[in-house]
Amino acid sequence: MTLPRQRGLTEQAADAAIDSACRLLRLPSIRNEFCDIADRAIKDQMTYRGFLAELLMTECDDRSRRRSERRIKAAGFPLEKSLRAFDFDANPNIDAATIHTLASCEWIKKSQPLCLIGDSGTGKSHMLIALGTEAAMKGYRVRYTLATKLVNELVEAADEKQLNKTIARYGRVDLLCIDELGYMELDRRGAELLFQVLTEREEKNSVAIASNESFGGWTKTFTDPRLCAAIVDRLTFNGTIIETGTDSYRLASTRARAEEPAKAG
User: From CA 239, how far away is CA 234, in angstroms rounded?
Assistant: First the structure.
């Protein structure tokens, strides 16, 4: 397709030509923002080069944002959680400096694991999702899943003779986030299938887990002691372990809000 070109276009004709060209070249951000950027360029007396740079940077920034949104959506997070929204003062067990260092994603670049261990309501899942979101925003492929959901999917894949394909799919992502590990006992088959996923990723891609059980209590989830030890080894080797404690900051926050009306009265 060739667009008609002529000199001395009216403003209306120029806008229509720009709209058509942006559609042809698939430049939606320039098409949507062109008029505002052009008006700003006139006001700020931009050079032609400066105006062109502003247009192109607008398109690049918007494409980067859309790619991040697609990666976050593909990760399958159940809720939107961010580090900015976490109240570090409410749980002093979680060191803000350590978390912000993890947010740089160097540990993912080095294919290292992360373990978040603590009772319910201490911020494990929030941290898991928030750090996974940071990774997706920085260009890493991320997948979030519940431990039981992952195991069920692996069992179904094995029954349908699709296990290798499923394990390979989980092996390809840069960061696999497994939540609620330790909440339910896994039978030997399920534990062995999970072990295969961890082995596939070992020292090649990162795994981050959240568990309400200390490692000593994992024998209730993985009833074979040797298998349990092997799984703990793969999830901790060269990794970071963060203990989020036992006091639920969610419960404390709820109680504090409930007490406010009484104090006001």
Answer: 9
Gap between the Cα atoms of 34 and 184, Å rounded:
55
Strand partners, 142: 175
pLDDT for 257 beyond 70 = no
Q: Which residues pair with 181 in a beta bridge?
A: 211
Residues 125 and 19: their CA atoms lie apart, in Å, by 45
DSSP 92: T
* Contact of 168 with 159, CB cutoff 8 Å: no
pTM value surpassing 0.90: no
Segment 218-237, tens digit of pLDDT: 888 888 889 999 999 999 99
Q: What is the DSSP string of 102-129?
A: HTT-HHHHTT--EEEEE-TTSSHHHHHH
Q: How confident is the model at residue 193 (pLDDT cuts 50, 70, 90)?
A: very high
Rounded CA gap, 106 and 100, in Å? 11
